[in-house]
Amino acid sequence: MTDLSGLRVMVTGAAGGLGRALAESLHAAGAHLVLTTRTADSLPGAAAGLDGSAEVVTAVADVRNDAELAAAVKLATERLGGIDVLVNNAGVPGPVGPAWENSPAEWRHTLEVNLEGPLAACRAVLPGMIERGHGRVVSISSHAGHTRWPYVSAYSVSKAAVNKLTENLAIELLPHGITAFGYHPGIVDVGLGAITPEARDSDNPWERRLTSWLDAQREAGRYVPIDEAVANLIRLVRGDADALTGRYLTYEDDLQSLAAATGRA
User: Which of 90, 142, 161, 246 could form a disulfide with 170 if both were Cys (CB 3.0 to 4.6 A apart)?
Assistant: First the structure.
């Protein structure tokens, strides 16, 4: 089993889905956790069942709320002494349909959560990492941001922007011993990949079209088991790919070979 004993990891959007799966894997490996959720109601579920010697700190911190993020980091610093790794996991799928027909408010909200949210979390966490001279930032991205995803444009554009933010942060953080990555976990049966009955029966024909596409991906075997989606993410958290800072990486990548190819593994 991977040993992450003593590593202090903050995961945003940890109430369920990929965030919860990551928290379970990190906790099993001995990492101390800082789990944030958007609402107080979802907070107990984030830490449920995570018992043992590794400490688990929970805090309500909407990634759109600078004060809540700052309070979460302050609490983590008081309880754990700081944060070594930030995983920007919180996100929303955004509106579905032609971009010009999407609600402007929903489009902006998607960018606010998926792009400005990770940057806000970085603003809260990075000063401490810089002071200590080490750290990692892993932002959950998507193939939709690496290429395109018509009719899910707000999500696609937000993830593309996260990738570019990561590239820029990586260069800016090099003098401080901090690495940054964008990570695509594949299509998983949580979050956007989990089809709800409401989506299947939606009045929006574009949402029904999206569910049909996701059904086809599942039938073709393109969904990724959650443990496979998390495996490379754990390796990034551990530091296996620090030589690849700034890169967009995926669940399929051979991180060891890629790092070795840089000559700095």
Answer: 246
